[in-house]
Design brief:
alpha/beta; FAD/NAD(P)-binding domain; D-Amino Acid Oxidase, Chain A, domain 2; globular
């Protein structure tokens, strides 16, 4: 940890999670002096699925970070499974380019901290940031000057409220839990299983360890209930040792009216989010970091505001589709039956999801076909 002496910086970042650290690294690449503050001490953990898609690894590479098998466990695609009245529909798609990586969140945070330190970012952990009514900022009671303030302080962002950027709408709100199990991964894919209580996500994070994350719309639903509603998982995890305590988090789909104002900008969950069901949270963060650094270099935060909306659009579109599958079992059952019978469709959808194919092209070429088969079940071969 660097010295705790307070002094000014070109950019003050409130929040030292992946969003804040990524922005700090990208800004240092542009030559800005950066101070990152956080009330916690590293490594900072968070309940999440812990899978980095291939596009996330590419964006990390632009920050000077290369992750490999030594940092976690690679995966090659996505597998969906849905049980409906005794029938199991499954579909798998492999990534066309690159592979994903399951990596423990604390390990990713350690790597980001190391990269930030090497890039010359000043890091202050375990400090209290006070945001004054006239734009003044104090860190542990001492004034801190800045040219820009970046709010990377999560869904309940104090910077967002302080700067008057809190206006927006929450589209969905769900509840997730995460735990790790000592078990050898049985698949080279991230698996998504639907049960009557919610979804469960399996991400391999080591040679003998998997991350299990569950998400449900019912605030009373707990991880064990979701897993128990999925017989395959219940049996696979029965009697297996756990390697972490259970952690919970809220996942939302939220859009803000604006993410930048004056000398303040927001990034990560502080700036809006797509439901964790998309798996694209970190990829969005890394893209936002590069965009924000460029905007500050240009002296034009409107460049960030407009580009931010474009970054969020695709994950939010995919979140809406996936949430329909969560809320309406009949729609999910029909969609899964179609995809299981036409895995090439699922492969193309995965390509759209990670930016390897354009959504307009997919909709133009396959959207009507997919919609017709879902809406008219008699056309589905059984």
């Amino acid at each position: 940890m660097v010295s705790q002496n307070i002094s000014g910086a070109d950019v003050l970042i409130v929040g030292g999670g992946p969003a804040g650290l990524s922005a700090a690294i990208a800004l240092r690449q542009k030559g800005a002096s950066v101070l990152v503050t956080d009330a916690l001490h590293p490594p900072i953990d968070k309940a999440c699925g812990e899978g980095l898609m291939p596009d996330s690894r590419v964006e990390l590479g632009r920050l000077g970070i290369t992750l490999g098998p030594a940092d976690g466990r690679e995966f090659r695609g996505i597998h969906f499974a849905n049980r409906n009245n005794g029938r199991m529909d499954c579909v798998t798609a492999q990534f066309a380019n690159g592979v994903g990586l399951g990596v423990r969140r604390v390990r990713l945070h350690e790597i980001l901290v190391e990269r930030a330190e090497a890039a010359g970012v000043r890091l202050m952990w375990g400090v209290h940031v006070e945001l004054g009514s006239n734009g003044e900022v104090q860190v542990d009671g001492q004034p801190c000057s800045y040219q820009h303030v970046i709010g990377a302080d999560g869904q309940g962002s104090a910077v967002r409220k302080w700067s008057g950027l809190d206006a927006g709408s929450t589209i969905s709100r769900r509840f997730g839990f995460r735990r790790h199990f000592r078990i050898r991964p049985w698949s080279e894919n991230v698996e998504v299983h639907w049960g009557r209580c919610g979804q469960a996500y399996l991400t391999p994070v080591g040679e003998d360890e998997v991350c299990i994350a569950t998400i449900a719309g019912d605030p009373q639903a707990r991880m064990d209930q979701v897993v128990d509603s999925i017989p395959f998982l219940r049996d696979a995890l029965n009697g297996q040792d756990t390697t972490s305590r259970q952690r919970g988090a809220v996942t939302t789909t939220r859009r803000l009216r604006c993410v930048a104002k004056g000398r303040v900008a927001l990034i990560g969950d502080a700036s809006g989010s797509a439901d964790a069901i998309t798996g694209e949270g970190l990829a969005m963060v890394f893209r936002q970091a590069h965009l924000l650094a460029r905007a500050i270099e240009l002296g034009d935060l409107s460049h960030y505001a407009s580009g931010h909306a474009a970054i969020l659009e695709m994950p939010m579109t995919m979140a809406r589709v996936m949430l329909l599958m969560d809320r309406y079992p009949m729609f999910r059952n029909r969609a899964m039956r179609v995809l299981a019978s036409e895995p090439a469709l699922f492969s193309r959808m995965l390509g759209v999801h990670i930016g390897e194919e354009s959504l307009p092209r997919f909709v133009r070429e396959r959207g009507l076909h997919l919609g017709w088969r879902i809406l008219v079940p008699s056309t589905v071969s059984i």
